[in-house]
Amino acid sequence: MKPFLILQLRPEAEASDDEFRAILDKGGLSEDRARRIRLEREELPAIDLADYAGVIVGGGPGCVSDAPEDKSPLEKHIEDEVMSLMPAITGGDVPFLGCCYGIGILAHHLGGRVSKDRFGEPVSVVRATATEAGRADPLLFGIDGPFDAFVGHKEAVQDLPEGCVHLVAGDACPFQMIRFGENVYATQFHPEADGEVFALRIRIYREKGYFDPGDAEHLTAAARRGDPQAGARILRNFVERYG
User: 3-class SS at 55?
Assistant: First the structure.
């Protein structure tokens, strides 16, 4: 049985470790079915994507739409490493699930417009709804009606990239989930998240410009009221479909 390749982009070890555990838990994966690479501290080795059941990319504080001169060397390294795999992933229709940062990576690679002009969302739990195409997509199987989505992002996809299918919409951010080809997916929300995952991220990123630091307590309480079941179902559907 092939493992899943999990690429992580968070410079903070505590957040990275917690994200990895959440991906395994929500996806129903054991550690021996995952190869974890933390791009903030290691080079991406030579990768043969045929050795993996699929690729999962976690979130991170970087923004693909930032000007090159505004990106730190670490942010640029992480972005370049992930982007280096995208031609093979989209060209080969390799199973891929990009979470939050991953939707910016996919859209940017496909020539779509990613920016901070519109559709950014503070750290929160929002309502998301599958489109007609989304209701027919296997990754959304078992999700009936609107669902809670855990979000927090400064940039967003501004227009659906050519060749993509719009799967999930939100009120403030229309492109919450997209698919390219048959197997390349990305979400603006965090399917691995739940209230406790977000409570930790709120603590770690409270000074990073995602929200007013004075709102941290209120945001933590709101996140704990969110229902993580739909996001977990998406992750598990991805793992079961390709694993």
Answer: strand
